[in-house]
Write a structure and sequence with these properties.
Blueprint: E1 11-14, H1 20-31, E2 35-40, H2 44-54, E3 58-63, H3 69-83, E4 88-91, H4 106-134, E5 137-142, H5 145-148, H6 155-175, E6 180-188, H7 202-212, H8 220-227, E7 238-242, E8 245-248, H9 266-277, H10 287-290
Parallel strand pairs: 1-2, 1-4, 2-3, 4-5, 5-6, 6-7
Antiparallel strand pairs: 7-8
Length: 296
């Protein structure tokens, strides 16, 4: 039995699509019939667009810096002008500047926040009026377990990725009445960006070897589904993809409470409140402490 491509003739802009996960997303979405705007800051965008065209797909290079509002707007308008509209965006572009917090400088903080968080906002905000007008549209934002759970030396990256979670949730709430949906994916994949993970101790080396088995193409099916009409009832969620595993991640909700009729003081909190709440505390774990099994 043959099936129609999930994204036939849907115009999708993918940021950071010159290499790594973004490249695989651009190629994979094109195979699903999408008309792809391939964004990156250099010639890699043109190379990926040409690769799609060579296999009979339709793609354009959208070269520019998503952290700059005017350039983000220009990319969205370029997709609209070239393909006659825009149906989805994938906010994937990113950089890393890993340092332990007490060594992190302001420039590295601002760069990571600008690309990941501000870039996701600029692209999403530029696409939003088109989505509202046509009463449809989908946004997929790449977050990270570095933010959802935690990792050493990534306070800038973690803050940006958790900011994206809040941004996505707010977009989902604000634009639900226009049939616009917004979801996050926390991908596990070995790319040029993740190749900077330290591999010195036996534990670190083993972790890197596990990472290498998780290829970027594994992120494509979930992304295609969330952008497709079949995913029209899924919004405001956080997913993760780890090789052949797909997870839906929890979101912050109250897990335990304490009540005192006369109110609390610091003393009664110390004596009763915190001991009662402590069993529900979230451990100070890193992503590797939670995902302890080998990828399947």
């Amino acid at each position: 039995m043959t099936t129609s491509p999930f994204l036939l003739n849907k115009a999708i802009l993918v940021t950071g699509a010159g290499t790594g996960i973004g490249r695989e997303l651009a190629l994979g979405l094109a195979r699903e019939g999408a008309l792809v705007g391939v964004n990156d800051i250099g010639a890699a965008a043109s190379n990926v667009a040409a690769e799609i065209q060579a296999t009979g797909g339709r793609a354009i290079a959208c070269i520019g810096d998503i952290s700059k509002e005017s350039q983000a707007q220009a990319m969205v308008h370029q997709v609209v002008e070239q393909f006659g509209g825009i149906d989805g965006v994938v906010n994937n572009a990113g950089v890393l500047r890993d340092k332990l917090f007490h060594k992190l400088d302001t420039d590295d903080w601002k760069l990571v926040i600008d690309v990941h968080l501000h870039g996701s906002f600029h692209i999403s905000r530029a696409a939003a009026p088109f989505f509202k007008e046509q009463q449809s549209g989908a946004m997929v934002h790449m977050t990270s377990t570095s933010g959802l759970i935690g990792n050493l030396g990534q306070s800038n990256y973690s803050a940006a990725k958790m900011g994206i979670v809040g941004l996505s949730r707010s977009i989902a709430l604000d634009m639900a009445k226009f049939n616009v949906r917004s979801n996050c994916i926390a991908p596990f994949a070995w790319t040029a960006m993740t190749s900077s993970i330290p591999a010195v101790t036996p534990e670190q080396i083993a972790r890197v070897e596990r990472f290498k088995r998780m290829t970027p193409d594994k992120i494509v099916p979930l992304t295609a589904y969330l952008l497709s009409d079949r995913g029209s009832d899924v919004t405001g969620q956080i997913f993760s993809v780890r090789n052949n595993e797909v997870f839906v991640m929890s979101q912050p909700r109250p897990v335990r409470s304490v009540h005192r009729q006369e109110g609390w003081s610091a003393q009664t909190l110390a004596e009763h409140g915190m001991p009662a709440l402590r069993a529900a505390f979230t451990p100070l774990e890193r992503s590797a402490d939670v995902f302890t099994w080998d990828p399947v």
